[in-house]
Amino acid sequence: MNPTSLALHTGDGLRLEAEIATSDEAPPVAALVLCHPHPQYGGTMRSLVISVLFAELPAAGYACLRFNFRGVEGSDGSYDNGRGEQADAVAAVHAMAERSPGLPIALVGWSFGGDVALAVTDPLLAGWIAIAPPLRILPAYPAATDPRPKHLVLAEHDEVRDPVDVQGEVASWTATSVAVVPGASHFFVGRTERVLRETRSGLDRMTTR
Predict the structure, then answer these.
(1) Which domains does the chain have, with CATH numbers?
(2) What is the helix (H) or strand (E) element at residue 108, kind and residue range?
(3) Residue 123: Cβ-neighbour burial (10 angstroms; 0-12, 13-18, 19+)
(4) Dist. CA 72–CA 36, nearest whole Å
(5) Which residues contact 29 (CB under 8 A, 6 or more apart)?
(6) Residue 203: which region, alpha, beta or left (left: phi > 0; alpha: psi -120 to 50)?
(7) Which member of 39, 56, 98, 201 has the lowest number of beta carbons within 10 Å of its beta carbon?
């Protein structure tokens, strides 16, 4: 993996810090944008699950871009209750599209980042992966009725929201699959390999390999 730092620029004029990683072995066949957990609870682009995906997926043929939401570490601005963070995700998707022209792009988020991802329906996207999304920042999610594929990876013992509740909420969503990671908490400590496997499974269904 060969990570490179870059700056993103949002539609409302903020500068966000980001990193992009690709494999040194072969050119990527798909691209991912990674959205981190809740900024007010210590979430950054270096949080556990995001770091594992960023480290491991480039070797599997996925270019990865991770970034800090507004107000986090070196990014401009301040927390915006999931609203401005959607503009941050859009800026990241467009930056990835510029650097990986022609590749399908998936928006991937963990926890709060999963909620933000599912709120964004940019036409550049091939689909979504949401890891333990609480589904709380919006009353309804635009991705729910979108025909593009969505894959949710839930934790069996999630402390933030019971996976049974999430499964019930998304049961009527279009083109949506769900996997539950046995024995996992919301933070997936000791279960990141399973999260990686489920993420790749979802990605393989939404990208041309």
Answers:
(1) 4-206 (3.40.50.1820)
(2) strand 105-110
(3) exposed
(4) 10
(5) 61, 62, 103, 207, 208, 209
(6) alpha
(7) 98
d(CA 21, CA 55): 8
Give kind and range of the element (H or E) at residue 52. Answer: helix 48-56
Q: Is 30 left (phi over 0), alpha (psi -120 to 50) or beta?
A: beta
**88/170 Cα distance (integer angstroms):** 25
Q: What phi, psi does 142 have (nearest 5°)?
A: -55, -30
Cα 46 to Cα 19, 98, 144, 173, distances in angstroms: 10, 23, 28, 30
**pTM, two decimal places:** 0.97
Token pair 């682009």 is found at: 45
For the chain, the C-alpha Rg in angstroms (whole number) is 15
Distances (CA, A) of 192 to 25, 51, 198: 24, 10, 10
- Residue-wise pLDDT for 20-71, tens only, equals 999 988 789 999 999 999 999 999 999 999 999 999 999 999 999 999 999 9
Listed in order, strand segments (DSSP E) in 121-187 are 125-131, 150-155, 176-181
